[in-house]
Each structure stands twice: as C-alpha cells, then as structure tokens.
C-alpha cells in the first residue's frame, strides 16, 4: 500500500508539472490523450480476469472490453488530431 | 515483484515523457505514439504476470476493433462527445474492476480494500452515467438544454450524503446489498449532474468527467493493489483538474456554479459603455456594410474570431478561403481563440486545423488581446459572449468579469453571426451597437462566401486595371467583351482548366469567375482530365485548395457526353487535352489519348497564353473553328478582365 501511495504522489506532482505546460492550442489532443490513459484500468481488468471465479468472470471481461475501447479509440483520435497539426512544413509553399 | 515495479516505473516515465512531448505541436504526435507504446508494454506486462489467456486476448481484440472503428469514424466537431463517451467507458471499466474485486474478496479483507473498492465503484459509475448523458447531449440525441429539477441542488447533496453513508455502512457490515445500493445512488447522481448542464458549460463538465475517470482508475488501483493503475489514474485526474480550472477561469465561474447550472435569462447590456467604446479614447470611423470591401482591401492586419457558431454553420472552409484570399494579397491574417470557444478545451483549434488553417496562425486569448488595438479589421464568425465588451462593465450579469477577446478595440469589426440574439449567457452584446461595427446576420457560411466573392471580384477589377495600364488595348477589349457576352447568354457552362492555369496562377481569378457565374444562376461544371497538370490530380488540387467545391468536378468519361448539351465550354490554359485530333487522328489510326470533347459545345471560349500547340505536338484545330472565340494572353490578366466586363454587362442589363 505504501508503494502505491508513493507512486500516486510522485505521479500527481510530476503530472501537474508537465501537464500545466501544454499550450491551450493542444488542449483537445491533450485531453483525448489523457482520456486514453484513463483506460489503464485495462491492466486491472486483465489481472482480475485471471483470478476471478467463473460465475463473475463476465464482469472482468466487460471491464476489459470497455477499457480497451477507451485506450485504442482514445489514442486513435488523438493521432488523427495531431496529424492535422503537423502538416505544416510540407505545404507552406504557396501556389 | 521488482520486475513489476521496474516496468511500472518505466511505463509511467513513458507516459510522462509523452505528455512532455505534447507541449509543442511539432512533437505532440510522437508524444501520443510514445503514450500508446507505453500502454502496449503495460498490457504485455499484465499478461506476463497472469500468463496468456486466449479468451482475454479475444475480448481485447474485439474492444480494440470497436475503438478503431469509432476512432476513424468521428468527425472533429464530434470530438467532445467522443471524449465524453470514452471517459464514460473508462469510468465504467474501473467500476467493474472494483465490483469484481468486491465479489471475490471475503468479508475478512481489510477495511482499506473495502473503502477504496467502494469509492472506485461509486466514482466509476458516476463517471459512466454522467459521461454517457453528456455525450448524448453533445450529439443532440438528448436535448442540449439544461434541465433543472425542483430542488435539484438539494437532491444532489442528499444523494451524495446517502452515497457516503452507504460506503460507511459497507465498512461496518459487508453485505452485497450495499455495493449495489452504492452503484445505484452514484449512477443517479451522474445523470442528475449532467442533466442540468447546457451547451456552453460542456467544456467544464467534460474536463471534470475526464478527471473523475482518472480518479476512478486510481482508486480501483488501490483496491486491487496495482501501482500503475494508481499512478496513471492520478496523472489523468490531475490533467482533468488542470483543464477544469482553466475552463472555469475562462468563464469566470466557479466549478460549483457551473455544476449547479443556471437558467438563461435575457439581460440587457448596461447603458453605460454601449454608445461609446470602453474608454481607449481612439476615434473610429462609422462604417456600414458598403464600406466592407474597401475596409478589407485597405486592411493590413486582420484577425478572425471564430466561435462555436462557426462550427455549427460548418463555415470553417469558407473562413479558410477568405483568409487565403486575404493572405494572397499580403495581409497578415491570424485567428484569436477564446479558451471556451467550442465544446471542450481547445476544440476550436482542432476545428480550424482540420480546415487546413495552420496552427501558427492560431493565437490564444492572452497573446491576441494586446494586438487588437493595432488590428484593422476583426471578422467575428459565430462568436458572441466571448467578445462581449459588457463583460467588463455589466455588473451582476453572468459574464461580468469573464475574460473576453478585446475585438472591440480594432478599427473595424465585422460580425458574421446567425442573429443578434445574446449568446449562451443571455447577456445582450453591446458590441453590435457600436459605430465601427458592421453586423451581417445570417448563416455564417453564406455570409463569408459572399464577402469572399465580393472581395475577389473587386480585387480582380483592380488587378486588371493595373496590369492593362490606362485602358486595355482595343482588340483585347473586344475579345473580353465577346467572351463576357457569350458567358452571359449561357446557362450550362463547363470549365476546362489545364496546367496553363497553374502556370499563370489564375486559379483565384477562375474561382472568382465561377462563383459569379453561379451566383447568376448558371450551372457550372469543372471538367477534369487526368493529364491536366504535372502530377495526377494536380489541377483539381489547386482548385480545391482555394475552395472550389468538390461536387463541381466531373471526370473525363462522365463529362464528355455532356459537351454536346452545353452552351459554353471555357478553356483556361489547356491545349492538348482539348485537341479534337487527339480523339480522332483520321486514317483509322488509334487515338493517342482520350481528350475532352470540348468542340462539341455550342460555343467554345479559349483563354490560353497563345495559339501554339501543347507539349504533345499536334496543332490544335479547335482554335480555327467557327464557334470558338479565343482570348490570348496571361490568364491571370484575361480572366479578371472578362469578369469585369461580365459584371459591367450584367449591371447595364439590369438598369
């Protein structure tokens, strides 16, 4: 439990530092990226699926599916958005 | 155990480094990929610890496919509801993990477990129902209006108390009834919380739900003893909290005030400061709609202020076309973005980037505000509350003290909004009544396109006058008149652009002429030949780039049968692809290449540089045909002249 709490504190502090520096230009991609990260629960669902007794395994399975949709979809839309922000250098020349 | 911790630390560092890369648009894409890669490593680690389970892999594959399908399909304007939906799924997953853990653990498990699991269940369920309802509202499947029940606040407070009491009871007596009750109570809480949120408050709520989905993951991580879940969940929680704060500050309302919802009451702007400008004492000319084009022509610095109304009118492309037209004339064009413009943090930037506007032109409020006083023209597109000068003066109204874009400080302001009704706050916009403001009510897409056309037409005339000296040469004038006359009589017109158009940089001039012809009710098609231009699809690309709509294009095979039925074929800088010889070289020889059957049109108007053959060699007999009128010269010069003559002739005909 102590490790978990220390981990939580360190992450929250470091997170605060890096996240506050993201410019408002990128707030939507930031949010959908963080959104994908919130699907980290997928790890918990995998771990618990492995040990859950048969009659409640479906709960863990459902958690797994929801979480992975969150993860994959979240990273995917973020990728799409950020690509739009990068197309700058190639089409700077006019005409 | 050590391996687990080590990998957990590495994965977390991967996420943090990914976010670090998100601080700049150039590196952000790699930041996201680093995040995704770290997640993949974490999942592999999870399987390393449990052993590969085939059924789990299948479930993950199904979910991943669903995620990809959603991720590919959504449009940028739907991003807020997409993020809300994903939030909800993440929260739901955390709740399910906690529920599974509770079902497995006996009553003997320590109280810390039961406390964290119950909290994860409650927060997860709340996130799930709240996010799903928010997503439904944003998608407009559920009414977007805030629904406020009688005693809404009291009900929510009561639910929260009941929820906390249930968690406490669960710690004392561990029966399955309590977790179920907790889930139900928090589910209702989520629904009621999202129910009273209206459109413009959504950025705050989405950020908050984003934060909660992280908190749910963090607490469920504590319950199942997984440090990675806790750390990363906290990361997400912090990010969501930061964005919630940013949004609240930008609306000058506390989180509690946003969550308690508010009913929109129309508030008149205060009398003071409505007639005059809020005190910078600079004199400005009174302007009216007739001055608009002159203002734009004289302007050096132009700032667009887009609001969510632009997205609703789907006017991004039109805005981009106008911005391009202005930039091509050497004007400085930027975009001033208010933090709460749109339905989630940063939404407007994404919508503009999608329309192909470069991010270097997007300025956030703090950067753009000092620039307004040196700005010649501000063009407001579908934005109201975020530019309302009354925010500084209208004490007691919902927007009082809200930081706004100081658009009013520019020399002239053009407002292209749907109507003069107040924005979401219900406070009347005192900007509309100021003398240096031109208001153009109506669909922003149409308004902006009209401005673009007028601007181009005016510029075309000036350009023609400049290049042609005092007066165009007599034969030039005659040719322009002949072509303009033919265009006036025509109803169905097919435009045939070739690489000569690109060489002459005449796309803008051509687009102007097409727009004018269309606004006069003529049917205009742009015929495409695969070989026009230097690379495949080159000419259409150049035209789409300046805003010619895709549905105007028609390809070789489709358009060829239509020439016979067409009044005028207008050839601009195209030779070989219109050559009738190419179609039928005679003597039974096979045709070297398919050409556009331009000569079959009732009249053919040619705007090429000269009558020399194209790169493939054979002279074009088209030029000598009876029904063909040619106007030799640089298309960037001839087309504006034709446009000018066309407009003159139309104007004389009217009077």
Structure commentary:
The complex is a heterodimer of chains A (95) and B (655). With 95 residues, chain A is mainly α. Chain A has a domain at 23-86. Chain A contains four helices and no strands. In chain A, helix 2 (27-37) packs antiparallel against helix 4 and helix 3 (41-51) runs antiparallel to helix 4 (57-86). The longest helix of chain A is centred in the last third of the chain and has 30 residues, at 57-86. Chain A is flat. Chain B is elongated and about 100 Å long. In chain B, the strands form two sheets. In chain B, strands 3-2-1-4-5-6 form a six-stranded parallel β-sheet. In chain B, strands 9-8-7-10-11-12 form a six-stranded parallel β-sheet. Chain B has helices spanning 2-21, 28-50, 54-73, 79-104, 111-138, 152-172, 177-195, 202-224, 227-251, 255-259, 292-298, 308-312, 316-328, 347-354, 365-368, 390-393, 444-467, 474-489, 499-503, 507-519, 538-545, 556-559, 580-583, 635-654, and strands at 301-306, 332-337, 362-364, 377-381, 412-416, 437-439, 492-497, 523-528, 553-555, 568-572, 603-607, 628-630. Chain B is 53% helix and 9% strand. Chain B is built from 24 helices and twelve strands. Chain B has 655 residues and is α/β, with parallel strands linked by helices. The termini of chain B are far apart. Chain B has four domains: 1-73; 77-259, no CATH class; 289-451, TPP-binding domain (Rossmann fold); 472-654, TPP-binding domain (Rossmann fold). Classes of the chains: A mainly alpha (95), B alpha/beta (655). Chains A and B meet through helix 1, helix 2, helix 3 and helix 4 of A and helix 1, helix 2, helix 3, helix 4 and helix 8 of B.
